[in-house]
Write a structure and sequence with these properties.
about 350 residues; mainly alpha
């Protein structure tokens, strides 16, 4: 009898998880997205951007990809080719194809995030993590009109992190190749694999696996650049981007309360929780925090930092440790009694 009750509870929890991910996804896609990146007012520009990347050809009169604000986007082909394939095979418009890709990707990313967090946390804290990610997702719809790889990339990062954590280098290599074709910032992911698994006993094996993974990621990256030339060059310098990011922070802090700067809204609370309790006893979580810190610094000097849509993988990396710290705050007696 108790076994039947437990099975019913598990089934109910599974249905509720699907419902939660569905509500968050449709809220973002229909309400937030409908007023921003899926608005009819930007459809023409989105179609132009789609054709530009699909054909790897700049519009007439445009001198460079950088002048479009699209430096390097010509090799982010997976979502563009997939949308075009859906359009040709099923007769769905390109705009609707992108919406379906984004919607399915976002739902699966939230759904799999729960299981990723469950490696360290009780179910209710894993659900809380999904809700927190959902609460900051509206910020990922700002400052852009055509970035169709963002939600597909988010899904790929969740899958990559799960494969790194479970140490499956062969499957990880396949997923990594696909992820780089979605958005090439995944080329650095093997660094996390090395940090998460290296030890004195496994130094050689882990280093060889990491080298092979780097060969895959950079091989795909440079292969795409060779096959699809012309998309890079002429971008702003590091000093110019840093100055622009600092100026943007000052402008947003003057208009809003300083805490409303998008990166603060996304990262400040998890970072404070991690400072309260740094995970010393879990190599993957330590590696994830170090790796996310390196990536955050890189993003600050090489991208428009207020565009947190590009930095969501960092949140996924630090979220397990932040939630473990929260658990310690809320349940200190239980954790103390456990050890």
């Amino acid at each position: 009898m108790l076994r039947i009750v437990d099975q019913n509870r598990s089934a109910a929890a599974f249905v509720l998880l699907i419902a939660l991910c569905g509500v968050l996804t449709l809220t973002m896609q229909s309400s937030i997205g409908g007023l921003s990146i899926y608005s009819e007012s930007v459809e023409t520009r989105r179609l132009q951007a789609h054709d530009t990347i699909l054909n790897n050809k700049l519009p007439d009169g445009v001198e460079s990809w950088n002048s479009l604000g699209a430096n390097g986007t010509n090799i982010r082909i997976a979502s563009v080719y997939l949308a075009e394939a859906m359009h040709r095979v099923f007769g769905i418009s390109v705009i609707h194809s992108y919406w379906f890709i984004d919607t399915i990707s976002l739902f699966l990313a939230l759904f799999l995030l729960y299981f990723f967090l469950s490696n360290w946390l009780p179910r209710h804290y894993a659900v809380l993590g999904v809700i927190y990610v959902g609460s900051v997702l509206p910020l990922t719809y700002l400052f852009a009109l055509f970035h169709p790889w963002d939600r597909l990339s988010l899904l790929s990062w969740v899958v990559l992190f799960m494969l790194v954590q479970s140490r499956r280098p062969f499957i990880l290599g396949v997923a990594l190749a696909l992820s780089v074709s979605i958005k090439y910032d995944a080329v650095l992911l093997p660094g996390l694999y090395w940090l998460a698994h290296v030890s004195h006993a496994r130094f050689t094996r882990t280093s060889l696996e990491t080298a092979a993974l780097f060969a895959v990621s950079f091989g795909v990256y440079f292969g795409l650049r060779a096959v699809l030339p012309g998309g890079f060059g002429g971008g702003p310098s590091v000093s110019a981007l840093v100055a622009e990011n600092m100026q943007r922070l000052i402008e947003l802090a003057a208009f809003f309360p300083p805490i409303a700067y998008p990166p603060f809204l996304v990262f400040l609370l998890p970072v404070l929780l991690i400072i309260f309790r740094f995970p010393k006893d879990d190599q993957f979580l330590r590696a994830a925090i170090v790796f996310s810190g390196v990536l955050m610094f890189y993003f600050f000097i090489r991208s428009h930092f207020e565009e947190v849509r590009a930095h969501m993988p960092l949140l996924l990396l630090i979220l397990p440790a932040a939630l473990l710290s929260l658990q310690r705050l809320l349940e200190p007696a239980e954790i103390k009694s456990d050890g």
